[in-house]
Design brief:
This protein is of the alpha+beta class. The protein folds into two domains: 88 residues, Roll (SH3 type barrels); 40 residues, no CATH class. Helix content is 24%, strand content 31%. It is elongated and about 70 Å long.
Length: 148
């Protein structure tokens, strides 16, 4: 009986973006005109994984909203549009933040198969990895990563 030589994504293992993930990065970055993203350095092109909104992120979000309200009031403008949507509902804080995942970099797997919750919805087929640069737990679609 022949063993399957293909490596599997497992908790505690290592992964990197596969060809599908890198193709997705290339197709998304083709439309970006930002000079910070475009250029000859391939590490500047990145896939944006999702990370849960932390308490620090929430505090920064609230501080930014308060700053915008103060600036609007100082300018003599109405601050309604800052705290409310066009349909009259209050603006909800985000539930996730984007984290760059670079092609060629190796990441540790925290959960091989998981469901992520962001944008007030459930997203199945995810892999939870640890970003060593930021220390954040990042959700990435399983079909975009391969075991190393």
């Amino acid at each position: 009986m022949k063993k399957n030589e293909e490596k599997k994504i497992r908790k505690g293992g290592l992964v990197k973006l596969n060809a599908d993930g890198e193709a997705h990065v290339a197709s998304c970055n083709r439309y970006r005109t930002n000079s910070a993203v475009s250029g000859a350095n391939p590490l500047r092109h990145a896939y944006f994984g999702k990370s849960k909104f932390t308490a620090e992120d929430a505090a920064a979000y609230r501080a930014d909203i308060q700053k915008q309200i103060a600036e609007a009031k100082a300018a003599g403008e109405d601050a309604w549009h800052i705290t409310m949507r066009d349909d009259g509902e209050s603006r909800l804080p985000p539930t996730s933040t984007s984290v760059k995942i670079f092609p060629g970099q190796v990441y540790a797997v925290l959960k091989a198969r998981t469901v992520g919750y962001w944008n007030y919805r459930k997203h199945s087929g995810q892999c939870l990895i640890l970003d060593p640069a930021t220390g954040r737990e990042v959700y990435v679609p399983r079909h975009f990563v391969e075991a190393v």
